Amino acid sequence: MFICFTKHPEIDQTMAHPIKAYPAQAPIRKFKVSWKVDRPWLQYDPPMNVMKCTYCIKFEAQIKKLLKTKRFIKGCKTMKLESLQCHEKSKAHKSAEQMQIKLLSEIQ
Question: What domain of life is recorded for the organism (predicted)?
Fold first, then answer.
């Protein structure tokens, strides 16, 4: 860890601030097939390297007002489990998921 000494503008004294050392090249994140377990809505597009939500795509018009972002409709490039978990907790996704469940129950 490096220490950076700077003058604090308000109190005019030198303060030490730790600075994280980051690798020059960030690790390349990849889609993990295991993320599809219990997520039938998750679709991965290898040529585009994006993840999409089939439910949100299917019911986009109905959930339009609930959408904060179209990241999982156009394609999410952030290959993190955290991104999936955040999406599946969103009001828009939950609403689209309920519409899918209702549609499937009507078919049976």
Answer: Eukaryota
Give the pLDDT confidence score for residue 18 in this predicted structure: 62
Pinpoint the alpha helices (H) of 8-59. Answer: 54-58
DSSP for 17-39, written as a single string: EEE----SSPPPP---GGGGTT-
CA-nearest of 71, 60, 66 to 92 is 66
Nearest one of 108, 85, 107, 88 to 97, comparing CA atoms: 88
pTM of this structure: 0.74
pLDDT tens per residue, range 2-44: 344 444 444 444 455 566 666 677 778 999 999 999 999 999 9
Please tell me which residue, 25 or 75, carries the higher pLDDT value: 75
Give the whole-angstrom CA distance, residue 89 versus residue 2: 38
Strand partners, 43: 52
Residue in 80, 86, 82, 88 with CA at minimum distance from that of residue 31 = 80
CA-wise closest residue to 46 among 37, 55, 34, 33: 33
